[in-house]
Amino acid sequence: MKKSWLLLLALSLFTIQGCGFKLKGQYYLPDSLKTLHLTSTKRFSPLAKQVKLRLEQNQVSLVRQTSMSVAELRILPEKFQRRTLSLFPNGQVAEYELIYLVEYQVFKPGQSPLNFEFELSREFQDDPNNALAKERERQLILKELRAMASDRILAQLMSIQ
């Protein structure tokens, strides 16, 4: 009974491993990107800080000085846009869409730079009577969008050869 249970467990683990299953948040970057120099055009970029955290969580060595033998990940300035989705009867904005635009570049030694960009969006309901609470909610949404963007950056880095 115990042998068949262990055999079933081992078979299940090999099947899961063979199909490419990975735990959420785990990114296996190519060897050429296991050591990176992370830069940002904006000095205190919240996105760069979030990406740095994700890279460290995934055992990527970050070097302080740029080098001709180390790849560089450059985070370009993030952009936010807002599009009106609906209005209150008095003409004030009731609901809008927050659009978060992300651009970054990857410089690998001996290769031309790779440029990436994508956008994420979330709907946001505004209420002029609760301006402070809605501002706090907007800040939380932006924080969540940055976390999603950092995960997307690492997922895209996995596909670079």
List the main descriptive attributes of the protein structure presented here.
3 helices, flat, 35% helix, six-stranded mixed sheet
The biggest sheet, with number of strands, parallel, antiparallel or mixed sense and barrel status, is: 6 strands, mixed
| Overall mean confidence score, pLDDT | 86
Distance between the termini: 46 Å
Query: What is the global morphology?
Result: flat
- Give the fraction of residues assigned to helices: 25-40%
Number of strands: 6
Q: Roughly what fraction of the amino acids lie in strands?
A: 25-35%
Count of DSSP H/I helices: 3
Rg from alpha-carbon coordinates: 21 Å
Helix-strand string: HEHEEEEEH
**Residue windows where pLDDT falls under 50 for at least 5 positions:** none
Based on secondary structure, the structural category is alpha/beta
Report what the structure shows.
With 161 residues, this protein is α/β, with parallel strands linked by helices. 35% of the residues lie in helices and 30% in strands. Strands 1, 2, 3, 4, 5 and 6 form a 6-stranded mixed sheet that branches. Strand 1, helix 2 and strand 2 (61-62) form a beta-alpha-beta unit. Helix 2 packs across helix 3. The protein is flat and about 70 Å long.
Write a compact overview of the structure shown.
By secondary structure, the chain is an alpha/beta fold. Helix content is 35%, strand content 30%. Strands 1, 2, 3, 4, 5 and 6 form a six-stranded mixed beta sheet that branches.
